[in-house]
Amino acid sequence: MKKVFIKTYGCQMNERDSEAVAALLAARGYRLTDSETDADVILLNTCSVRDRADQKALNKMASLAHLKRKRPAVVLGFLGCMAQVRGVGLLQDLPGVDLVVGTQRFHHLPEYLDRLWAARQPIVDVAAEAGSESAVKDHVLDVNGNQRVTAFVSIMQGCNMQCTFCIVPATRGPERSRPIPEIVEEVRQLVSVGVKEVTLLGQIVTSYGRMTGGKSEFVKLLTAVHDVPGLERLRFTSPHPKGFGDDLVQAYRDLPKLCEYAHLPVQTGSDRILKAMKRGYTRDSYLRIVEKLRTARPGIGLGTDIIVGFPGETDEDFAATLALVQEVGFDQAYLFKYSPRRGTPAADLPNQVSREVKEQRHRILLNLINENVARKNAQRVGATVEVLVEGRSPKNPARLFGRTRTNHGVVLAGGDDLRGRLVPVRITRANRTTLYGELT
Ligand code: SAH
Ligand code: F3S
User: 338: CA distance to ligand 1 center in Å?
Assistant: First the structure.
């Protein structure tokens, strides 16, 4: 039996794609392994969103190509976003690579591997494919012999926005949505094998489908999935702030399974930079969305993404970002240094910010975020919250791990019988990343 090792870089979409590939190959008789040393096939599912992600995968492949000199039979492949943008160039840069498969062609992997077993001739496929949004549908339901409690369901691919810093529209192509009944059916099947919480996934989920009759297709989809019997919790990521119309805000009131958490990528607090990024909202309109959500669901958890050092960002612009972060008080924030991506408009802007300044702003903002998050977490001590127990804590297998509805990770004591159950937990201790609690 041939063994496959898949290493995943980047976002949850990539995690989900890797899982679907793993399930597809397992169904074809491959065995999944978490050790690259005994694998017959090594696949790197790559990310291109920042230069560092590119470099990581390239370095990894360079060391694997080295290993291949000792084990020439091993198949080395690049999948995902970097495969999509660099294509055949990867073969030239890294001899030893057998396979380059782009973001719309994952599901052809079994047949490409068959071809490679028959004859070693490198294969590059970065074509577009109609209907590929429905190809990411296979799941691995068993992790280390344990049944899954949570699952990601891909609802769309691609993004039609043109944020000037972002490579995603180039790597993932234009928006393509799966039909509602197909998604509902996938959720039904997951629930029938014990999944309790589903996260709907896409690069810009709030643009799912098309607007009809005043209610967005996305809200219709949420409602349809919400009605699946046995499903306990529903989440989605990533939305775009401009997608938080009144109907979506109302959904937070109407749909009890919809968890009170929203990831609202703000990117910057400066109107001038928002405009240069072509984000399509202002600081004010963003803050109004935050207010509406907090009114609709008091205590809602809010997360964000922020970029420091976008071209032309002045001290004043940066101060506006600091002020916004202070004002909102996010529960979770991912902070990035601007990284120019070839072919995106911002990469060609004249006034790029120096590395030193980016690093300095990154440090200052990270400190502020960490302080805020630690303070907010400390405020939760003493509260009793609903936790969905996912299984053993990966960091401390003697304990259990679960999540609150507001997306906070909680570590608690208890037996395996609690896996997959919603339990009330009293928070006893907190740090910046984790809450600790006990069953009440
Ligand atoms: N809506 C998408 C965005 C993907 S990129 C999603 O979440 O699926 C994720 C985050 O990476 C963005 O929100 C942005 O904050 C950051 N990012 C994207 N391009 C970047 C770049 N060129 N440099 C630095 N950060 C970037
Ligand atoms: Fe990228 Fe903007 Fe779309 S950040 S994924 S172009 S919404």
Answer: 9
Whether 169 lines ligand 2, by a CB cut-off of 6 Å, is yes
Tokens of 169: 């529209």
Asked if 343 and 167 touch (Cβ cutoff 8 Å), the reply is yes
How far is it, in rounded angstroms, from Cα 102 to Cα 115? 17
| Average pLDDT of the chain to the nearest whole number | 95
Name residues whose C-beta falls within 8 Å of residue 5's C-beta, 6 or more positions apart in sequence: 32, 33, 34, 35, 36, 39, 41, 42, 43
pTM of this prediction exceeds 0.90:
yes
Q: Which ligand 1 atom is nearest residue 204's CA?
A: 1
| C-alpha of residue 17 to centroid of ligand 2, in Å | 19
Q: What percent of the chain has pLDDT over 70?
A: 98
Mind listing the pLDDT tens digit for each residue in 262-299? Answer: 999 999 999 999 999 999 999 999 999 999 999 999 99
Strand bridging mode 75-79 / 99-101 = parallel
Which residue's alpha carbon is at the smallest distance from atom 2 of ligand 2? 163
Ligand 2 within 6 A of CB of 203:
yes
How close is the Cα of 336 to the center of ligand 1, in Å?
8
168 in ligand 2 pocket by Cβ < 6 Å? yes
Q: How far is the CA of 311 from the centre of ligand 1 (A)?
A: 15
pLDDT at residue 140 in the model: 86
Q: What is the sign of the dihedral through the CA atoms of 364, 368, 373 and 374?
A: positive
Neighbours of 205 (CB within 10 A): 23
Each residue of 293-345: pLDDT tens digit?
999 999 999 999 999 999 999 999 999 999 999 999 999 999 999 999 999 99
> 67 Cβ partners below 8 Å, 6+ apart?
36, 74
Task: Enter the tokens of residue 222.
Answer: 């949420």
Is 176:134 a contact under the CB 8 Å cutoff? Answer: no
Q: How far is the CA of 274 from the centre of ligand 2 (A)?
A: 13
Q: Tell me the sheet residues that pair with 387.
A: 404, 423
Which ligand is nearest to the Cα of residue 243, counting in written order? 2
